[in-house]
Amino acid sequence: MEILRVLEEKIAQLIQSKKLDLEIIEQLKREQLSLREENKKLSGEVTRLEEALLAQAKTREEFDEEREITKMTVDELIQNIDVLLEKELQP
């Protein structure tokens, strides 16, 4: 009889262990789902930030081009003024 009691205790322990394992599995599934949702959200945010960065880089590139054009225009204007001044100063 003692053997049956020990066997029943072992079976009860195994059942309890199995229930605990199932609870842990369910908890991990919920956590996994939560992490997947967070990952999806963060991936979307990364994509949005990448697009914003690319747009900013394009804007920066356009700004640099405009600055270079402005610099060339100002240089040309200064040269033209110098030529006019030289012509006016010549007797």
Mean pLDDT: 94
> Which oligomeric state applies?
single chain
Q: In percent terms, what proportion of residues is strand?
A: under 5%
Structural class: mainly alpha
The number of distinct helices, counting runs of at least 4 residues, comes to: 1
The H-and-E topology, N to C, reads as H
Please give the radius of gyration in angstroms.
Answer: 38 Å
- In which range does the helix fraction lie? over 70%
> Which stretches of 5+ consecutive residues score pLDDT under 50?
none
Anisotropy-based shape: rod-shaped
Instruction: Report, as a whole number of angstroms, the end-to-end distance.
Output: 133 Å
DSSP strand count: 0
Topology overview:
Elements lengths: L1 H88 L2
In short:
With 91 residues, the protein is mainly alpha-helical.
Structural descriptors:
rod-shaped, 1 helix, 97% helix, 0% strand, 91 residues, mainly alpha
